[in-house]
Design goal:
Blueprint: E1 4-8, H1 10-17, E2 22-25, E3 34-40, H2 44-56, E4 59-65, H3 69-77, E5 83-84, H4 87-93, E6 96-99, H5 106-113, E7 122-125, H6 131-141, E8 148-149, E9 151-154, E10 174-177, H7 185-197, E11 201-205, H8 207-233, H9 238-244, H10 247-253, H11 260-269, H12 271-294, H13 297-312
Parallel strand pairs: 1-2, 3-4, 3-6, 4-5, 6-7, 7-8, 10-11
Antiparallel strand pairs: 2-11, 9-10
Helix pairs in contact: 5-6, 8-12
Length: 318
């Protein structure tokens, strides 16, 4: 069973993560502002990071590159970024580069960046899966893998695009670092301090452990809500269901409106952990179905109560 340690020094938190544990990094000294921060993916996640840095006074200039020039210009018009540039220019001039694209697009972006990457640049990402992404990064970057520090901010919304970005998205939220043996403590510490200044609590853990945990707590809920919505759509009178649905339906299905591109990529990038969680979930469905079929009301009540009690006693903690 992985150990969750109390607040730890930077070096201890990193050491623990290499031994299948989890530790929260103690508060670091606020860093000096970056002269240039580069963002690839100016939507909710990347755009909010840019705004958070600006609000915290941690950057003089935010530049961005990407596939769609219109998207970049929109982000500039909204004040999320200061300048739209080429991928080559961003790689050469940004001190900190944040890749916030769907996980399946990560490799292509890294292939474009690496040949032009400044020796001083730190590259990080916001991907919801880590192990497969790290394998790809090693193959692409070679010895320069030391410049890549994998991250995952535990924050989001069903909304997307630069218009959804906000400077407080990461306040009182978790930021996960899955450090590599090649990373320097200085680079890890700088990123920890940067995200703490944006309001996040920063944790270290192993990449494979990360993928198992978030398959259970983040990826599976999105899978389930999509399955539920599609089960309704398959019904003969589904429009009547949607017309009569109330607040319970609204609350439960909110995340089904999230980006299909992003979540499709995540499910396949974290396939093994997802299949394991699905097996466990389907076992629970079969168990509850049996209680209903056999009229075992006492068992059904205890099944509901166990879930209800745990949810009532759970609180979102940073």
């Amino acid at each position: 069973m992985p150990k969750l340690l109390p607040v730890s020094t930077l070096s201890e938190a990193v050491r623990v993560s290499f031994n299948d544990g989890i530790a929260r990094i103690a508060a670091q000294v606020k860093p000096e502002p970056f002269k240039t921060v580069g963002i690839i993916g100016t939507g909710l996640i990347g755009g909010s990071f840019a705004l958070a840095l600006k609000r915290a006074g941690l950057c003089e200039r935010v530049i961005a590159a990407g596939r769609q020039q219109s998207t970049l210009l929109n982000a500039k018009a909204l004040g999320v970024i200061d300048e739209a540039v080429s991928m080559e220019y961003l790689a050469q001039h940004a001190e900190l580069i944040y890749i916030a694209v769907p996980v399946k697009a990560f490799s292509k972006v890294l292939q474009q960046l690496t040949p032009h990457l400044s020796e001083q640049a730190i590259v990080c990402d916001g991907g919801s899966t880590k192990y497969e992404l790290i394998v790809d990064a090693r193959a692409i970057m070679g010895e320069r893998i030391r410049q890549f520090v994998p991250l995952h901010p535990i924050a989001g919304s069903h909304q997307s695009g630069a218009a959804a970005a906000r400077s407080d998205l990461y306040e009182d939220r978790k930021l996960i670092i899955t450090p590599l043996a090649e990373n320097s403590l200085d680079d890890i510490g700088l990123l920890a301090a940067t995200w703490q200044s944006a309001g996040a609590s920063v944790y270290c853990m192993d990449a494979q452990l990360h993928d198992k945990i978030f398959a259970a707590t983040s990826h599976l809920p999105h899978y389930i809500t999509a399955a539920y919505m599609n089960s309704l759509l398959a019904a003969e009178h589904h429009e009547l269901f949607f017309t009569m649905a109330g607040t319970g339906f609204k609350d439960f299905t909110r995340i089904a409106a999230s980006s299909p591109e992003m979540w499709n990529d995540i499910f396949y990038a974290n396939k093994e952990a997802m299949l394991c969680q699905l097996d466990s979930f389907m076992q629970q469905l079969e168990e509850a179905k049996a209680y209903l079929t056999e009229g075992e009301e006492d068992k059904m009540f205890e099944w509901f109560k166990q879930a209800s009690d745990k949810r009532k006693n759970w609180h979102l903690k940073s």
